[in-house]
Amino acid sequence: MTRTLPMACLAMLLFALPAPAQKLKTAPPGTIFLKDNIYIDRLPVTNNAYKEFLFAVQQFWSEKTHEAIPRLPLYGLKFIDDPAVRIVDKYDADVVDSFFLTPDPAFSERMKIPGQLVVDLATNLTMEYYTKALLYKNNPVIYITHEQAAMFCKWRSDMVMLHYALKSSGKGERKRYYSKVNYRLMTEDEWKYAYNALGNVLLSDFGIRADFNKKSFAGYAPVDSRKAENSFSIYANNFAEILLDKKAIIGALFNENSQAAQNIITSKYAPASNVGFRCVCEVEQ
């Protein structure tokens, strides 16, 4: 004998079920899913990534470029086969012009990190060497101001949107990606949520030390990005990260030989050799 649920019971059952989670699309570059519509960087921003930003600032990216990019198509975007990588002139004239602008020298200068700064106590290791040497290319960028970090996030949002438009030849392909991405600095709650909820936290012993036997300087190995693909990775040695709140940074203190944080602390922000940053990315379906 076949039994059927009364309609009232069926309705109650359906309402009792949790709402389906939003469908996740391709994660924005460099991130893992955090919660709701937010992704977070697996790793702090590296010297290499910041150098790409500086190149863009010196060559073509500006606030005017940022304002023009949303008027470009979401898919089917083509570039001229030109070393300057300029957009085809079939789009709005002001959009095209924004990619031919002479960069703002004052803005470009503000984004640079003073090369004469000394990293930690290694008096012969300058920031210029630390940021340019291949040895440190995957180490976190340091001595960053809040403005520099915020501008990096803005530029990164633009570049990812352009990347999606270039990768997608049509509307169907574009649906693999989120319609809009917005990278920004993280909040204290987001950092703590990532640390407590994501699990598989990778620690990397970041620091600059002097090798007095060889009379040279060496950096501890950064996190291997291949091992960190699904991990929220933080640095030990009291390394802190810039928060969206302009006055604060956050980091973790660890017991020796322990993977568990002894204490999570926030403190007043100032650019320093043990302060870097990472982004979170807000997405729209």
UniProtKB/TrEMBL annotation:
Residues 25-195 form the Sulfatase-modifying factor enzyme-like domain. It comes from the Bacteria. The keyword S-adenosyl-L-methionine does not apply. Residues 1-21 form the signal peptide. Keywords: Signal. This is SUMF1/EgtB/PvdO family nonheme iron enzyme. It comes from Panacibacter microcysteis.
